[in-house]
Amino acid sequence: MRTQVGIVGAGPAGLLLSHLLHLRGIESVVLEARGRDQIESTIRAGVLEQGTMDLLTETGVGARMRAEGAVHHGFELAFEGQRRRIDLTGLTGKSITVYAQHEVLKDLVAARLAANGALYFNVSGTSLHGVDTDTPSIRFTHDGEAQVLHCDFVIGCDGSQGVSRAAIPAALRNDYERVFPFGWFGILVEAPPSSDELIYARHERGFALVSTRSPNVQRMYFQCDPKDSADQWSDDRIWAELHARVDSSDGRHVVEGRIFQKNIVGMRSFVSATMQHGRLFLAGDAAHIVPPTGAKGLNLAVSDVRVLSRALDAFYKERRTDLLDAYSATALRRIWRAEHFSYWMTRMMHRLDDASPFEQRLQVAELEHVTTSRAAATAMAENYVGSVAV
Ligand code: DHB
């Protein structure tokens, strides 16, 4: 088999890259270890920055997002029994859309298949070869048959546990990591929305987040022990925790409903630099992880492949290599901005077991500041909608 660009991983980075390359007349093959059903049903994040929404729309895969996603012009910060709004649109002119990641994946898979794109699901034994030569290849097994895919470039979009990152020699790579000693307990609930906008809550008992998926399905999270097991939590205990952390003293409260999904995710910050080696380029979670606070993960994957698709286009159309050479440095500017924002918001909003009472009051002081100073609120809003210049 031969193609121009071999893509490992059919997550947001891999599928969107394949779609963007197709629109530029560049051929690719996407290899995915999981099944199509699995990627189309795994519950992940759900906030799309304005730039992500615009890109999906401009490239013809935004119709369902526009019809079914919810546009939000602000969010609320809950602390000390009150709620204060961050007016995203008033402060930045931009907004966000709440639309689940697996719905974005469904739309991208459908677009690739409609264009006869080559997508291989359930592949195993993937390995990368000759990435530091001009003739790299990917070996894998599909339907019981060993295959070799020869390509001009290999793009690693296979997440933090994938094989691609390890194909960059450790001596050329710096890994930067911070593991947080807490996780998020996530639930899906059959209920009407508790609020018109997302609520990020800081409370002595820990962080909580009220988000949405549709008029009838809500997504909520609360800080927990990452080693805890979801079965240990009865519905009553979950609601008690959410009420304690989110309800405000003026009577506004979380609306209960039937919980039909529970999961726990760990939290860490991670960056692996460089993101390229010879003909291998990493994009999305293969190169970096953010804690979910601030919802940057999917949006960073999108910005990586936007940069990469332009660089590959310049290579194929004009034989230019400057944009490819600069890929890692270009992508990392935005990645480090998002790493800082996600870390900052995580530290401001979560119960930190090593924080002294003094530092806990600093968290509240900072929340007071970002909700009263227009300059501070604007900085937060620009980061949240993804409009900071980098
Ligand atoms: C959601 C996830 C996030 O990490 C966040 O910051 C906001 C919303 C969500 O899944 O809806």
TrEMBL record:
<keyword id="KW-0560">Oxidoreductase</keyword>
<dbReference type="GO" id="GO:0016709">
    <property type="term" value="F:oxidoreductase activity, acting on paired donors, with incorporation or reduction of molecular oxygen, NAD(P)H as one donor, and incorporation of one atom of oxygen"/>
</dbReference>
<dbReference type="InterPro" id="IPR036188">
    <property type="entry name" value="FAD/NAD-bd_sf"/>
</dbReference>
<keyword id="KW-0285">Flavoprotein</keyword>
<dbReference type="InterPro" id="IPR002938">
    <property type="entry name" value="FAD-bd"/>
</dbReference>
<feature type="domain" description="FAD-binding">
    <location>
        <begin position="2"/>
        <end position="341"/>
    </location>
</feature>
<keyword id="KW-0503">Monooxygenase</keyword>
<dbReference type="InterPro" id="IPR050641">
    <property type="entry name" value="RIFMO-like"/>
</dbReference>
<keyword id="KW-0274">FAD</keyword>
<dbReference type="Pfam" id="PF01494">
    <property type="entry name" value="FAD_binding_3"/>
</dbReference>
<dbReference type="GO" id="GO:0071949">
    <property type="term" value="F:FAD binding"/>
</dbReference>
<protein>
    <submittedName>
        <fullName>p-hydroxybenzoate 3-monooxygenase</fullName>
    </submittedName>
</protein>
